[in-house]
Amino acid sequence: MTNQSEIKITEVALRDGSHAISHQYTVDQVTATAKALNEAHVPYIEVSHGDGLGGSSLQYGLSKTNELELIEAAVSVADFSKIAVLLLPGIGTIEDLKEAANLGAKMARVATHVTEADVSKQHIQTARDLGMETVGFLMMSHMAPTDKLLEQAKLMESYGADTVYVVDSAGALLPNQVKERIKALKQALNINIGFHGHNNLSLAMGNTLAAIEEGATRIDGSIRCLGAGAGNTQTEVLVAVLEKMGIQTGIDLYKIMDIAEDIVAPYLPKPQEINRDSLTLGYAGVYSSFLLHANRAAEKFSVESRDILVELGKREIVGGQEDMIVDVAAELSKAARK
Ligand SMILES: CC[C@H](O)CC(=O)C(=O)O
Ligand SMILES: [Mn+2]
């Protein structure tokens, strides 16, 4: 019997992990993973291109398999878990959202840069009209002070979001900064507060626990750390830690441990780790999804990925400006030849 859940986890490997595998998910991988996560009683499983619905493109990376096929496959094996989709207004459209809802997606997570919540209004309202649970996802939360973040979260609440997430896209936040942000949202909003971390500074678990301490009840994790950069808070580890703390997630610990080992690890191109480049993401405050783009640009222009990432951090380049990664690499290469 499943215990009463206190923290509801969204498993993001089938979306955030798409960045780490260059958007090469197959129907077989998604079906096997979603089926097992459903059996382990994971409440929400997010499935989409890494950059959300409509993300498959030269700019963001072409998907091997159309994400609608992946969503359909996940829905077909999930009679417990709800399938969630990510949507970044400007990349994904209302039509993409409708198609996902038609296929059986039950949760829409509408993501904007931390200062641009106003662009989520139409998408959050449409998701509600479609009968979906709605999440406002404030990305790159380290780039705004707490009062700005709160103002933006209030906008999402006013549009009808059921939950607002503090999203540490770069894995750059420190535990005290997470606490301050979650506390402010918890005090001022009447909806669920969530936290999505990245492990670039090895703080995803610490930050997640800090968020929970301040009242966050919706938490993202990626199994085997399969997310952008060094990955997210590792789901199976989080389930174990919360269980030891007496906090219920409703997820079967041994089943999720086995999925990580037997299903997900075999299709990882390489183990997820904090290496020089992923550490630089957190240190310089750069979008985790920029990692492989920077690696490719570094190779093409014979420059160091770290130098590209540090420069992107200085210029405060954000999601949607992926073309700047190549520009920066070219500039660094030119400067080195002078
Ligand atoms: C590019 C979208 C991004 O991967 C969303 C997300 O998970 C984050 O900002 O951390
Ligand atoms: Mn992420």
From TrEMBL:
GO BP annotations, alphabetical order: L-leucine biosynthetic process
Catalysis performed (reactions): (S)-4-hydroxy-2-oxohexanoate = propanal + pyruvate; (S)-4-hydroxy-2-oxopentanoate = acetaldehyde + pyruvate
Site (Transition state stabilizer): 15
GO molecular function, one term: manganese ion binding
Domain of life: Bacteria
A Pfam cross-reference name: DmpG_comm
Keywords: Aromatic hydrocarbons catabolism, Lyase, Manganese, Metal-binding
Domain Pyruvate carboxyltransferase: 7-257
Top-tier EC class: lyase
Residues that hold Mn(2+) according to the record: 16, 196, 198
Annotated Gene3D superfamilies: 1.10.8.60, Aldolase class I
Enzyme Commission no: 4.1.3.39
Active site, renumbered: 19
Residues annotated for substrate binding in this entry: 15-16, 169, 196, 287
UniProt key word Metal-binding: yes
UniProt similarity note: Belongs to the 4-hydroxy-2-oxovalerate aldolase family.
Protein name stated in the entry: 4-hydroxy-2-oxovalerate aldolase
Species annotation: Oceanobacillus zhaokaii
Name of the gene encoding the protein in the UniProt record: dmpG
